[in-house]
Amino acid sequence: MSSTELPPALATTVTPRVGAVRVGDGERLRSVGLPGITLTVRSRPASRKGLPPALYVHGLGGSSQNWSALMPLLDGLVDSEALDLPGFGDSPPPDDGNYSVTAHARAVIRYLDAAERGPVHLFGNSLGGAVTTRVAAVRPDLVRTLTLVSPALPEIRAQRTAWPTALLALPGVAGLFTRLTKDWSAEQRVRGVMALCYGDPGIVTPEGFRHAVEEMERRLALPYFWDAMARSSRGLVNAYTLGGQHGLWRQAERVLAPTLLVYGGRDQLVGYRMAQRAARSFRDSRLLSLPEAGHVAMMEYPETVATAFRELLADAGEQPSPSGAGAEG
Description:
By secondary structure, this protein is of the alpha/beta class. Helices cover about 35% and strands about 15% of the residues. Helix 3 (about 125-140) crosses helix 9 (about 250-255), helix 5 packs across helix 8 and helix 6 (about 185-195) packs across helix 7 (about 205-220).
């Protein structure tokens, strides 16, 4: 089912959402109400009927906007939607305050079940990579292929540059950080985030930087911003400690869908050394290593990621349409 053909159960809960949230050329936003959560979904009109659906899931502190550079490159190939996880982007907090990886995965599953869009080509970055790995493991019927960009899977020795993010999980740290940085401007915060997430922050255009600052100002004004960050960080750390069948690496081994793994050599949050372990763990995987990329390769090198995804589809026997030739990098 395409994003423009919603089942009756969802159609009654869909309303336009624009407001202060940036909407790129050709994009649309809508708000979808589900039990216990409300999700904002960003989509692009399908170029033709019958395209297979794709769903994109962002990382910690991100939003559906993180996929706006990649999605147009896959027009004519998939019917693209990206969601804001509860408490992020333009989605309000979940009613139960649960920001665990399992809760985020449940939100993705609830949306796919309600929208009747599965199976989808599922994309995840960072925290979204952990979430989509769990979705693919527990609901293989919902996933055609899985594309993971710097997935946040457990590391025994995390990089020092990733420690501040993990420290947000500790009770009281988010409040302390808020007080210590109360005089920081949105521009300062954005420069810090970009220095952490990009292999080369210099590739960000002045327009892109301005949009990021505007989005940062909007998020900082939200009363739940730091709570969502802290609780999601705590949820990710807790997921790292789970063993047995609920462990993320064990679940990676259960993923049946053909999987594309994308790792950046300059990633300061997910260790580049984890790429080989991931390639061994996902049974049907191919690895794209980008030595100059940081943590958000789909924003830094969208053409390269798009080309790798097309190759994934070809390897999986799903030949891309000639109309998707714009994805060549």
